[in-house]
Write a structure and sequence with these properties.
Strands 2-1-20-19-18-17 form a six-stranded antiparallel β-sheet, sandwiched between helices. The chain has a five-stranded mixed β-sheet with strand order 15-8-6-3-16, covered by helices on one side. It has two domains: 276 residues, Beta-lactamase (3-Layer(aba) Sandwich), CATH 3.40.710; 202 residues, D-Ala-D-Ala carboxypeptidase C, peptidase S13 (D-tyrosyl-trna(Tyr) Deacylase, Chain: A, 3-Layer(bba) Sandwich), CATH 3.50.80.20. The protein has 487 residues and is α+β, with helices and mostly antiparallel strands.
């Protein structure tokens, strides 16, 4: 790990941010700056209840340019994923590939596995149904035609957790279970169509090429007004109900999977059957036996996975990558909080953060706190290393009517973060004259967020409008800095 840290997070020019705000001083040649809106005025115009904190510095020297409430611990939301990406890349390496395997016990005789066939999860957050189909085809190519024993799934390469954040509604797909096996980001596809005698519903594990029906998830349409969905643990099945009046004529949505190993096993049985390989039984195992590896499927390089994670903000990818990094560092976390604590310790040493308080790797948890000064320290520390900046998402600026402006003179690459009444943005911006700056902007109305009932967390009243105002403020601050600090 020492060599990985040295290569991935090579030190760049860095100056610790000062403890007090530095107010820009107008000079004779800079009188034009007086026309640039002040940060305080932009915040007042946004009319955001709650707190706003920001910090911006020269990305190359670390010299602080402006800051407000720099030391206040605030919810970082999905900006957390930028820290997770650095943690995983530093620990595992940019070229690391997760492996999913098919293992046979008892040897093979005349094309028949004499013992059991085991699907072994290796922590790949990008495994999908198309890939399982490919693995089934590769299994057939080895000459296997039958299995005498049972089909089993091993998911304990990572901790087995019911979900990311227990405070989220049961039905949101961004809060699935977390284990060493993930299929289709641990989401099952629910589709409904009105029929003459009610509704026809399907639950499947669809991907780009296939739509296999699954038995481990079931849906029942219930003649009630509320709640919208209910979930119950059926032992070997995820049992769902949905309120009939909410369905309309037809529709579809993704639901979270609470039994990832059974889900992947269910789909693989179908894919193997399509290859003429009949698998009997489906059992979960907690200990991996010795056996012969028949098929190994590798993921894309970790760097590519982290780029997609930052672009699409996939919570499951962040949690699995973070857990894998912690375990690779010798940790034995039994919760996300325990794994995040190890990442916090790493961030203090590797990124120069003073007091990171993350409780997971995705930013979904309510209790995570980070200051904009700490976030800025991390960004400046890795600037020039070529690790984070190239995999951050390009943020396209907008005009006064909220239309995208592709050729805007200020260029931004950053990680966004959104929770109910929380909006964050952190990354790098390049001014019209080419000056590079690192910045972090955190907006949060925590008192209002605390009043939201669990059932309303998917879409609380006023949440969308608040978020729009927060994003407009973030752009206003970036435009101010791009003009005021261009010199």
């Amino acid at each position: 790990m020492g060599s990985a840290a040295a290569s991935v997070l090579a030190p760049a020019a860095f100056a610790a941010p000062p403890d007090t705000s530095l107010r820009p001083v107008l000079r004779g040649a800079d009188h034009f700056r007086s026309a640039v809106p002040k940060a305080a005025d932009l915040i007042a115009q946004a009319r955001l209840n709650g707190r706003v904190a920001f910090a911006v510095a020269d990305a190359k020297t670390g010299n602080m340019l402006e800051e407000m409430s720099p030391s206040a611990g605030m919810p970082p939301a999905s900006v957390t994923k930028a820290i997770t990406a650095l943690y995983a890349l530093d620990t595992l390496g940019a070229d690391h590939r997760f492996q999913t395997q098919l293992l046979a016990t008892g040897g093979i005789l005349d094309g028949e596995v004499q013992g059991d066939l085991i699907l072994v999860g290796g922590g790949d957050p990008t495994l999908d149904t198309d890939t399982l189909a490919l693995m089934a085809a590769k299994l057939k190519e080895t000459g296997v035609r039958a299995v005498k024993g049972t089909f089993q799934v091993y998911e304990a390469s990572l901790p087995v957790l019911d979900g990311i954040d227990p405070n989220q509604p049961d039905y949101v797909s961004y809060n699935p279970a977390v284990t060493g096996v993930a299929l289709n980001f641990n989401r099952v596809h629910f589709e409904w169509k009105r029929a003459s005698d009610g509704y026809a519903v399907t639950m499947d594990g669809r991907s780009a090429k296939y739509r296999p029906a699954v038995a481990m998830a079931a849906m029942q349409v219930s003649d009630r007004a509320t709640p919208l969905y209910t979930y119950s643990d059926g032992g070997v099945r995820d049992n769902w109900t949905v309120a009939k009046p909410a369905l309309g004529r037809s529709g579809a949505r993704w639901l979270p999977v609470r039994k990832p190993g059974l889900y992947a096993g269910d789909v693989f049985v179908t894919m193997a059957g399509a290859q003429g390989i009949r698998l009997r039984g489906l059992a979960m195992i907690e200990t991996l036996p010795e056996g012969a590896v028949l098929v190994t499927q590798q993921s894309a390089p970790l760097r590519d996975i982290m780029r997609d994670m930052l672009k699409y903000s996939t919570n499951l990818t962040a949690e699995m990558a973070g857990l894998a990094a912690t375990m690779a560092r010798g940790g034995k976390p039994d919760t996300l909080k325990a794994s995040a604590a190890e990442m916090n310790r790493w961030a203090k040493g590797a990124l120069g953060m003073r007091n990171p308080g993350l409780v997971d790797h995705s930013g979904l948890g309510d209790d995570s706190r980070v200051s904009v000064r700490d976030m800025l320290s991390a960004l400046i520390k890795v600037n020039g290393s070529g690790v984070l900046k190239p995999i951050l998402k390009t943020i396209t600026m907008r005009d006064a009517k909220r239309n995208l402006v592709p050729n805007h003179p200020i260029k931004v690459v950053a990680k966004t973060g959104t929770l109910n009444f929380v909006s964050t943005l952190a990354g790098y911006m390049t001014g019209p004259n080419g000056r590079e700056m690192a910045f972090a902007i955190f907006c949060a109305d925590e008192p209002r967020r605390a009043t939201i009932a669990r059932a309303q967390r998917a879409s609380p009243d006023g949440g969308r409008a608040w978020n729009v105002n927060a994003k407009q403020l973030q752009q206003g601050l970036i435009e101010r800095w791009g003009t005021y600090h261009a010199a």
